[in-house]
Structures are given as structure tokens and as C-alpha cells.
Amino acid sequence: MQENPSGDESLRPTAFRERTEASGNQAEGIVVERWGNPEVLALVQGDPTIVLEGGQVLFKEGDSADGMYVVKSGTLRIRSGSVVYEDAVAGGIVGEMAIVEDELPRSAMVYALGRTEVVKIGEKRFFDMVAENPTFARTVMRVLSRRLRHMDRIYQPERRMEHIPQS
């Protein structure tokens, strides 16, 4: 298991976050956070997988949404236009807004950086997972919250400055 180098104690101890240099022409030279959670991965071990090859798109921004996905192996990149949000690795989730919002289109594009296996989680499977492990619902909410905070930092940097104590 990897350590949480951010020191953020709000994450579950088993979740991890890495900052890595992105490679490839999609986001060359930028720092991308990579997220995964071994506990989430354990919940889908016996589930059937979908295999994506490098560069293959799982879904595009604007596509209809009918479920979320858990990364079983490999890496998925989440982006909107030229903005790369993060990479999801084993135990990471993407498309979680589809579970929360009924019939709204996808808000980002997700594609494989290399050979990647994912498990599709529809609404019924999601509720089964929550019944089996109630903390899974909180894990999904934490992902949503973390991504929202990340977008706030990107698009509203002046708000960060308001909270810095003046000396």
C-alpha cells in the first residue's frame, strides 16, 4: 500500500494520492494527481471487466451517463478540453456523477493511458455495494468533494488568497 504524501488526514488511510509527471502528448509537462483505493478495488474483485487499450475512450464529455466505473488495473485519465483533472488507478472511480445525477450528460472525457480494466457499476450494483459496505457511499462522496475542491482551486485561485492570514 502506498503512503498518502499529501498528509491530508481526511482521506481514508488506505486511499492514496500521488503526484506524477504526465507523459504523452495529451498533457506533457504537467503534474497530474493519481488516485486509487484498495478497499474499493476489493469490492469489485469478482465482477466482470471491460478492457480498454491505450488511447481508447471510455466516455466523452456530453455522452449520456448510465453508471460509474471502478478501475481494476491500469490508468484512466479524466479531462475536459485541455484541462486534465486527474488519473484514476486501481481502486479509483470515474463517472460517479452518473449515480448521483439522473440522466445528465457526462461532464468530462475519460480514456485509458495504457491497457486498463474497469468494472461498470450501475445503480443497482452501486446500492448493493453500499449495502455490503456502507462506507463505500462515503468514499464516493469524498471523491466528488475532492474533485470539486480541486476545480475550485483551478478556477478560483483568488478565493484561496482570502483565507491566507495576513502578517
Overview of the molecule:
The model is unreliable at 1-16 and 18-29 (pLDDT under 50). The strands form 2 sheets. The chain has a 6-stranded mixed β-sheet with strand order 1-2-7-6-9-4. It is globular. It starts with 15 loop residues before the first strand and ends in a 5-residue tail after the last helix. It has a single domain, classed as Jelly Rolls (Sandwich), CATH 2.60.120. The chain is α+β, with helices and mostly antiparallel strands and 167 residues long. The longest helix has 21 residues, at 135-155. The protein has helices at residues 38-43, 97-100, 123-132, 135-155, 157-162; strands spanning 16-21, 31-36, 50-52, 57-59, 68-73, 76-80, 83-88, 93-94, 109-112, 116-121. The chain contains 5 helices and 10 strands; from the N terminus they run E-E-H-E-E-E-E-E-E-H-E-E-H-H-H.
Any descriptors?
Jelly Rolls; globular
User: What is the oligomer described by this structure?
Assistant: single chain
Please name the CATH architecture. Answer: Sandwich
Distance between the termini: 40 Å
Order of helices and strands: EEHEEEEEEHEEHHH
Specify the number of helices. 5
Topology, number of strands:
10
Instruction: Tell me the domain tally.
Output: 1
Walk me through the topology.
Elements: E1 16-21, E2 31-36, H1 38-43, E3 50-52, E4 57-59, E5 68-73, E6 76-80, E7 83-88, E8 93-94, H2 97-100, E9 109-112, E10 116-121, H3 123-132, H4 135-155, H5 157-162
Summary?
28% of the residues lie in helices and 28% in strands.
